[in-house]
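Whether sequence alone determines local backbone shape is best considered at the level of individual chains. For completeness, the protein is quoted in full, as a sequence line and a line of structure tokens:
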Amino acid sequence: MGASQILIVMMAAIGLTIFAERKGYQSALFLAMVGIAVSFVPRLPRTELEPDIILGLVLPPLLFSAAVNFSFFSFMKRIGSILNMGVALILVSTVAVGALLGWLYPVMSLPAALILGAVIAPIDAVSAVSIGTKLKLPNRLMTVLKGESLINDAAALALFSAAVAGATGGSMPIDNAALYFLFAASVGAILGVFMGGIVHQLRRQLHNPTMVTALTIITPFAAYMLAEELTASGVMAVVFAGLSLGHNSSDLKFDGRIQQREFLRVVDALLEAFVFAYMGLQFRFVVEDAIEHGYTLGTLAGLSALTLVAVILVRIVWVMFSAVLSKWSHPRRKEGFERRLASINARPTRRGRRGRSPDAKLAEPLGWRENLVLSWSGMRGVVTLAAAAGTPLVTAAGAPLAERDLIVTIAFAVALGTLILQGLTLPWLIKWLGITNDGDLAFRQEQVALARVATQKASIDKLEEIRDAQEDEAGKAFSERMLANVKRDFGLSPAGRGADTSVGREKMMVIVGEMQAARRGALIAERDAERLDDEIVREMLENIDLEQAVIARRSE
């Protein structure tokens, strides 16, 4: 696929996305369906990317952006459900689909069937986040869905490597598939946290927001490539680097945060639009390849339909079965959690503070309606396409891998089938079940009120401290005027009221910066005490950044 073709697809995809949003359509589904229709245009040139380009250049920034904007505390709070869906379900789906295909279509070898099972097992982070956000799913449901979609790629790719080795006679870095996954996931996660820490320390020293953004751009690619060089999971490295940097982003200067945030949004828009359009554009060509190698259209359609039904049913059964176990075990887990919490809070830390908030609670299990929505939110995407296209052409002995075209065709059909079938019916299911985010709205109001009280107190305390420390009358008057405005406006920025006093611009910006730093510190302290949700804190920090940017602009 040439550079000109990529640009044309991107431009067309952005245009179609704008059209879909204006019409109220789900842009991901609209792009995929338009792509399928366009793929059948006569003499249309094939637009195909190498699997390494998709996995190494397209996937890392998408995963990184999703991880940066994901609440680390929410991730850890639901870690049990996330691991269940992101690891255990991947193994179950791979084995179940592989065994079913091996039984229904004996011509297909079991190793090849397991390759297909691993390819279509992971749900897509892009689809999950874009569709779930569009449909305004409850936060706790979105937490599980986002978390699953971020880590299941690592499990699926490890199983894919094991299945490919079995089918082709090749080898893995570690012969045991379970040990290889543990090694790849743990080393990838450790590497991601390590790189996130290094990058965070570097960008704290940078005063140029453009350089902060440049460092951010490099991070996901560097994390992915370094992990892959070490035969670890590049996916886990990218995810944990993103979680680390997102959690510590409050330490950046406001202009660096603003530019980085806006850049990631632009990258998301471009790559998401391209991925969904690319999925649709490939469909006709992969079907033609399979037909050219001897498969009939009926065979392809039949096996694709059966596989699609299988992956959907396996997910539904597993989610509902896990929900029953979770509800049954929750009272015992809650009792154990409360005992541990009491023990931790009974021991003061070295700084004399308690270890965790006494208000911390164990996450309540999802209800049956939410679990049903979760089970129907299994859209496949970019990893499925890349892994399918990355299936080897030949075995280690040099013989052709006969089932490769069948694997690729079924994988594309399942990815598009889940995206269209489940994506189109998910809004209806949510409405029929009465799933709303009304509880989230009430919780959000409480959280915003708590955040405003914390920032107001921090602002007043800091301004009183600054006022009392001023030696000149201009600085004292400016501080007093800001303090009056903060008290009157309940923590809002005093931009436009008394900013142009005799105090110099540099000193004014120092005072404003110290006040805003105090507000940020208050929000972070509430978050670390688990009284404020990470996503609410991130939103409030964004508002503070914009206020400070306006003040800086008006004072120039």
User: Anything to note?
Assistant: Residues 3-182+276-283+292-328+357-436 form a domain with the Na+/H+ antiporter like fold fold (CATH 1.20.1530.20). The chain has a mean pLDDT of 82. Residues 456 and 490 are 6 Å apart (CA to CA). The radius of gyration is 26 Å.
